[in-house]
Amino acid sequence: MHVHRFFALLLLVVMALPAVAVEKRIAERWGNNLVTTTKMLKAGSYPDALPILKKTIDEMLSMLGPGDETTYVFIVPLIQMALAEEGMGDHSAAIWHWHMAQTIYPKAAETDLSAFGVPGETLRRNILSNPNPPACLHKREEPLAKVLKPSSPKYPDGARLFRERGIVIVSLTISADGSVSEPRVVKPLPTPLTYAALESMRFWKFAPATVDGNAVQSSFCLTVNYKLN
Asked: Which end of the chain is more exposed for a tag (fewer CB within 10 A), N or C?
């Protein structure tokens, strides 16, 4: 899908949100923010765009609940955040967020990002294969990485407000150096909870799996259980 059409359609969803989720003035602010950051990213003003995008995402997490509209709206700043991070040289964060966008909304991979220069070209070279596998990719006979340091996910205020709860299951790739990449959602929850779970997984620390004493790449299945008190 062409970048202008893609973002235009999703921005229309943002502007339509007041009827189902948030006040009109808030939805309009989000829409205006994303119009501004689109222009900034095209101009290469990545340090200016990134804080606006992070603030917009935080506000969305504090207010939005379940529904396809939430998913469509959330994908816009998430893709733009990846573009800004790539433009600033934070490749690992950029690819993680780009892959997050694809596993949350697989059609995100069809976006034409050519208008965003080198960062857009880089993201397009990193399409996540099989973004929503039916089961975790790790097999019992394969070596297993060891968790060294977990990271607890946040419970978004919007999800609490809508009393969303349940289990998110994600298949991860653990590289031979212990780094985490290629998140693939096996069992999703509404987008805010899935996003929060995936964002926390970026900071987990692992000792890689080994074969004959040598570190190797492996898959790892991770479950996050959101419970309401």
From this structure: C
